[in-house]
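Quiz preparation item.
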């Protein structure tokens, strides 16, 4: 990592782990992300209509409104893909020996210790496990993505709980204020969207310049993992359906907190913003036209209200601009970036080697798993 950035992170070193822990210690890092659409965007499970929930408008304003929802998977999956593409591009995901053991119960070979395991002794390429890791249904269980964002059990790979916790995000304003039904006038336009057949069909779109306050909560992570997730958030720009031609989103980091409890919920943030923006407009609901500045101006009060009911220890990153500047120069500098990602991968492999092989021993002896959940 670059010197200045390392120094900044060092101020918060007690918020991070030096090694990925086996058991929870509830060290939370919460990144408050205001997502802003920069083009039309589509968040739908049904295909034609946007996903909507009926919810209380604000905390003080208790009327019910319909809100467009950005489901958690639609937030995190693109960010995971950003990170994995980077790991592949820089050749970080070298192949390692599977966790099989010889008859003595020892791992056949320590994994991931420097040598290039992409090639066997004859120089031939080995089976690619980590390079082929898929978020859905083909997880390798041995890469930084699997160990940080979690993966479900597939045959023979065990599972890992996510340490990046997310939740559905909700648009601040009501659906009629942020949505347009865009008419498609040719069949060709609809083929990729899967609603071909009707020559004149429409599709609901979220408008550009619409805001979705969210928080990404990191649980018991190392400094390298924190930096990796933050980089994924800041580098990802495409979300939702049709994301090859719309769905451009800019993620603005409003705040970062380290704590021993979860401080923010997405819906609460949305409702506090609704109250603040309603107050600013003075006409019973937020203005139809809102810019990033309106949200930034409303944030200090939202933050204050959101933190008021919290029980627990917390620390705010005071020099947020400095921290984000550090992340920016790190991700611009290939040498520094490579060393960060290699460190991330080394620690991942250490964790996999030590934890997963112990878990296998335990399963063999019929012990209960110690996980508390
Ligand atoms: Zn993986």
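Solution:
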């Amino acid at each position: 990592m670059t010197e200045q950035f390392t120094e900044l992170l060092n101020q918060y070193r007690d918020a991070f782990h030096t090694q990925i822990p086996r058991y929870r210690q509830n060290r939370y890092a919460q990144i408050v992300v205001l997502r802003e659409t920069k083009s039309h965007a589509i968040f739908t499970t049904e295909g034609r209509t946007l996903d909507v929930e009926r919810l209380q408008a604000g905390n003080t304003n208790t009327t019910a409104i319909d809100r467009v929802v950005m489901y958690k998977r639609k937030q995190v999956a693109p960010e995971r893909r950003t990170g994995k593409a980077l790991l592949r591009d820089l050749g970080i995901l070298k192949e390692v020996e599977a966790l099989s053991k010889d008859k003595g119960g020892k791992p056949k070979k320590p994994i991931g210790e420097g040598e290039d395991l992409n090639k066997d002794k004859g120089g031939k390429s080995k089976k690619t496990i980590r390079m082929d890791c898929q978020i859905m249904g083909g997880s390798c269980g041995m890469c930084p993505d699997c160990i940080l964002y979690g993966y479900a059990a597939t045959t023979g790979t065990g599972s890992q709980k996510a340490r990046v916790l997310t939740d559905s995000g909700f648009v601040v304003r009501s659906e009629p204020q942020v949505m347009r039904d865009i008419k498609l006038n040719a069949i060709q336009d609809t083929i990729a969207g899967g609603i071909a057949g009707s020559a004149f069909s429409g599709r609901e779109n979220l408008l550009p310049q619409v805001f979705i306050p969210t928080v990404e909560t990191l649980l018991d992570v190392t400094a390298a993992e924190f930096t990796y997730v933050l980089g994924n958030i800041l580098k990802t720009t495409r979300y939702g359906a049709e994301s090859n031609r719309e769905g451009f989103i800019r993620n603005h980091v409003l705040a970062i907190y380290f704590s021993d409890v979860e401080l923010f919920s997405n819906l609460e943030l949305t409702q506090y913003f609704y109250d603040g923006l309603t107050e600013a407009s003075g006409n019973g609901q937020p203005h139809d036209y809102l810019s990033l500045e309106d949200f930034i101006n409303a944030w200090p009060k939202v933050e204050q209200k959101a933190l008021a009911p919290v029980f627990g220890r917390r620390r705010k990153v005071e020099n947020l601009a400095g921290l984000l500047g550090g992340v920016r120069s790190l991700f611009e500098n290939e040498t520094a970036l490579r060393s960060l990602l290699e460190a991330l991968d080394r620690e991942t492999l250490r964790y996999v080697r030590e934890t997963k092989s112990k878990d296998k021993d335990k399963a063999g002896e019929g012990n209960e798993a110690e996980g508390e959940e």
